[in-house]
User: What shape does this take?
Amino acid sequence: MTVYAGPVFDMAVNQFRVIADHLSIPMDERDRLLLPKRAITISCPIHRDDGTVAVFEGYRVQHHLTLGPTKGGTRFAPSVDIGEIAALAIWMSWKCALVGLPYGGAKGGVRVDLTTISKHELEALSRRYMQEMIPFVGPHTDVRAPDMGTNEQMMAWFMDTYSMYQGRTVTEIVTGKPVSSGGTLGRLEATGRGVAHLAKRVMKELAIDLNSATAVVQGFGNVGSYAALGLHQFGLKVIAVGDHTGALYDKGGLDIPVLMRHAGAHGSIAGFSNELQFDPAQILTLPCDVLVPAAMERVIDAQVAQNLQCRVLAEGANGPTTPDADLVLEKRQDEIFLIPDILCNSGGVVVSYFEWVQDLQQLFWEEEEVTRREYHILDRAFDQMAARSKADKIPHRTAAMAIGVEKVRAGKNVRGLFP
Ligand code: NAD
Assistant: This one.
């Protein structure tokens, strides 16, 4: 029994067990690799617009400090609990190690329904969340970033709150900030762009013609919208898109730039078109060449996996596919090419790392340089995953995670028990 118990944490544990068995990691090393170094739970009281006080619960989990500071996003959503945040922190560790970043994984969040608070209350909550965390974070201890329900503006509030306590501007405490506040060019687009880049690479390997290919994207926030845009720009028809308000389908291909402008102005795809409305429950199983789940975890269970009709599954979200579904996909291995989440969506943390480096050096790069370096790292990690999968005859997810776990394990074994 652990404080993290819950379905998302169980999923991270089950995945780790598969990797640990594959790598023959001794039992007495496993808890040390898996269990988070620290977990912080805080209360965030804020004044509501009507003068009352509301208290929100917030979390931050720092998985390990073996390879450098911890790094990870901040989620504001009603589903947030300590188990979900711990699982996301663990996945961040394997992801950062896989792509070769000098970080351990972290994740944080606040349990809040964003539809129930005003912009002014959101600013108060964002600032309070950062303020309560000040004793536990720092540019060389734990660096945060956006995730579901958080955005550039909130990163700017985090950075500003931390900076005011230090008496100087500390841009390197947070990544995913606006470019006007020490952010990097190419970060806003980085995760979705990376998803599209890797999907395109796989399509080329599978000899799928980009101009007659189709894509379906679940989630139209930061990751989903830029992944859809990237695929659209590569020539694919994005035939369906869904978010928490519903789904849209157009067999001729949706106009993604126009839909992005709509979602930017209205906060969702709702109200874009009555004619194109589609049943969101069916979006994942539509026939298509590329499927991008880019919303939330555990949406592809064994039953959905059995019914998938895509050729490439490019996991934009963290943890969209359950271990049971993985087993189904393994049996269908010839049919569906999986790009696992810790590789597929790693463009976000890669460019966050570039932002941190630029902030520390106060030397800023052109966007072309940012994206070129992002793709280089993604391609290198993809090659390593593919080679490992082939050599060990293991699925892509096992290969990607094995590389990540091995690197963390090597760091722990040379340093000892502390980090
Ligand atoms: P976001 O808040 O910008 O967007 C989330 C999207 O998911 C929204 O369009 C929302 O409507 C949709 N959504 C929420 N609940 C849904 C539901 N029940 N059904 C369908 N759609 C639903 O978040 P984001 O930053 O784009 O993150 C999306 C996923 O990508 C998360 O799993 C996150 O952990 C992961 N991720 C994000 C980044 C990043 O840089 N932002 C990096 C790596 C991974």
Q: What stands out?
A: The mean pLDDT is 97. The longest strand covers residues 38-47.
